[in-house]
Amino acid sequence: MAGAKNSALKLMAATVLAPGRHTLRNVPRIADVTLMAELLDRMGATVSRRSDDPDVLTIDVPDLMDPEAPYDLVEKMRASIVVLGPLLARFGEARVSVPGGDDFGNRPIDMHLRGLEDLGATFTTSHGVIEGRAERLLGARVLLEYPSVGATENLLLAAVTAKGTTVIDNAAREPEIADLAAFLTTMGAEVSGGGGSTITVEGVERLHPGEHTVVPDRIEAATYLAAVGMAGGSIAVEGARVDHMEMLLDRLSAMGLRVDDGGDRLWATAPGPTERLVSVDVSTLPYPGVATDYKPLLVALLSVADGVGILTENVFAGRFRYIPELVRMGADIRVEGHHAVVRGVEALSGAPVRAPDIRAGAALVVAGLAAEGETVVADAHHVARGYQDLVGNLARLGADVALGSAVGET
Ligand code: EPU
User: Fold this and answer.
1) The domain containing residue 265 runs over which residues?
2) What is the mean pLDDT of the segment spanning 239-244?
3) Pocket lining: 67 vs ligand 1, CB cutoff 6 Å
4) 192 and 234, same structural domain?
5) Is the CB of 86 under 6 A from ligand 1?
6) Is there a single domain that holds both residue 296 and residue 388?
7) What is the mean pLDDT of residues 124-151?
């Protein structure tokens, strides 16, 4: 399993906190990592892949940096907002373009800003740029009104060198947050409770460069499980962390996918060729609930399962844009508010479709595996933002899939 995108990007941002050479291993070779490297580079750091091992990233952070995340990068990758906390912590100032909405709808950052204000930062916004200042951040108790992943990360990154103790309550509990806390610990930070709903940080005077191996990508692992669920057969997903995917595995098992924990790998076997998956209801929730990022994959699976399944989205209200694409492929799905009612059909039929975002793009590719005839997924560059060689891996599993010469994946 490649390292998790949603951890690697934050670990890269964390390096801003300490000058010197940081080493990150198992960093996925994906477009978003390249964008984060470009952002760090614009701020003055040097990011390089090791020539003898391209999964290892070294990041040289200088004493002085330009504390700014410009619009052209923030617009391409919302995760850029996570440099706000470390820049304020290290330089007492930060300028970050206001991220706009995206394919999931309006995505505010009010909780990031309010939490950082609790630590003593002040913000002004003009001409689309948030300017943050903090003479010296001071530890405080911050109660998040929702366990936002990004807000928890920005707060954690700001708190590690704040004066005194910070307690983040109702923190997001995603494994990628525990991973960030572990990396910060290698940098000399004093963090306890990372991955739980209360994180306590004792601020330290200064940090030193860190070294860490990125946690395996649970969403990527789920993508291969979904591929097997759609196309049949069995798979061993090397390095998948079963303990990070419990709720999802429960739902997939209820649908009839046999999943076995092989210690350092996950085995999955689809029902026999004459049997179908069975429909279940699923709700997305913050971790340890079923992640919203799994949802397009689940909708694809339900679209060919036996029965009716209701999928309820509780994290991003607008994350349904790929559904008309699945309907183009013959799926029977009705969206009502934040519910998708999926009536399984016997088979999908291949069609030209368009990937609206990373996860939906992967789900359309996976759906194409089970569809009769050819599926051409346009805007497949979205998939490359988050997946290292999805097409190559599926082809190695026996799928008839190829990267098109323009932007398409079939
Ligand atoms: N929210 C607010 N105010 C805030 C922050 C969040 O209202 O200040 C709302 C959001 O609008 C959303 C909910 O809270 O409705 C959850 O957002 P959260 O902050 O938890 O998500 P995020 O940090 O923006 C990360 C991942 C997403 C993943 C979500 C949920 C990264 C770079 N992104 O986003 O991953 O879906 O957590 O788990 O880590 C992806 O990888 O394709 C992706 C979109």
Assistant:
1) 218-409
2) 95
3) no
4) no
5) no
6) yes
7) 96
